[in-house]
Amino acid sequence: MSSNPHRSALLDTWTETSSHFFNSMLEANRAAFAAFGVGKDEEEDGPAISARDRIEPDEDLAEWSVTLSEEDRTELGVGDRVEFSKTITDEDVKSFAAASGDTNPLHLDDEYAETTRFRGRIAHGTLVGGLISAALARLPGLVVYLSQDLEFHNPVRIGDRVTADCEIVEDLGNKQFRLTTQVMDGEETVIDGEAVVLIDEPPE
Questions:
Q1: Interatomic CA distance for residues 156 and 104, integer angstroms
Q2: Residue in 106, 89, 96, 107 with CA at minimum distance from that of residue 159
Q3: CB atoms within 10 A of CB 148
């Protein structure tokens, strides 16, 4: 094994950066759940319910919308799709900024954002991209994210209602599927990309 100190330093830097990124994403996910109304106290103290029941909209989240073409995991195949729609609120943006550490004033400061090319505040791209994860979580079975490619095309403003549209385009075998992943703001594509997921049988 090489004892090159420069290479070792690079490896240490990469490891530290990756760990920081992973932890930031965990916190961002927790913030997203909190913003969407899924509370830790409910999980710890509430009645015993299934994971899928827990994440479905309650009275406070009635504006969520989900469309799923196939509810049987064993029947999933090319052409099946899932959509998830949600309005991006000011609370969502502030919670995501606090959890992720992305406090770019473009997302938080009205006066600052007015001076930019966007002429106003916009939502974090990663927050908007999170709706793809929300859509994939509605597929039947235990969904495990393996990869995600994203291209950001247009901004999303506070108050916009956006829809993540995911369609299976290839069965990769071994319970793995490749999907196209888009987030739409009306007729406008704001995010485009592809994902690969593994769909296991859920635990009893």
A1: 15
A2: 89
A3: 16
By CB atoms closer than 10 A (0-12, 13-18, 19+), residue 35 is buried
Q: Which helix (H) or strand (E) holds 5?
A: helix 5-35
Q: Per-residue confidence at 38, pLDDT binned at 50, 70, 90?
A: very low
CA 50 to chain centre: 21
How big is the chain, counted in residues?
204
51 vs 59: CA distance, rounded Å: 17
pLDDT of 97 higher than 90: yes
**How far lies 67's CA from each of 12, 42, 49, 81, 85, in Å?**
44, 26, 22, 8, 9
Q: Name the 3-class secondary structure at 58.
A: coil
Q: Span 39-54, mean pLDDT?
A: 43
At 204, the amino acid letter reads E
- Residue 199 reports pLDDT greater than 60: yes
Instruction: Determine the distance from the C-alpha atom of residue 60 to the mean position of all C-alpha atoms in its chain, rounded to a whole number.
Output: 20
- In terms of Cα–Cα distance, which of 202, 148, 157 is closest to 177? 148
pLDDT value at 126 more than 80: yes
- Two structure tokens written together for 83: 């959509």
Average pLDDT over residues 173-180: 97
Domains recognised in the chain with CATH numbers: 5-200 (3.10.129.10)
Please, what is the end-to-end C-alpha distance for the chain in angstroms?
45
pTM for the full model? 0.72
Token pair for 50: 């299934």
pLDDT at 204: 81
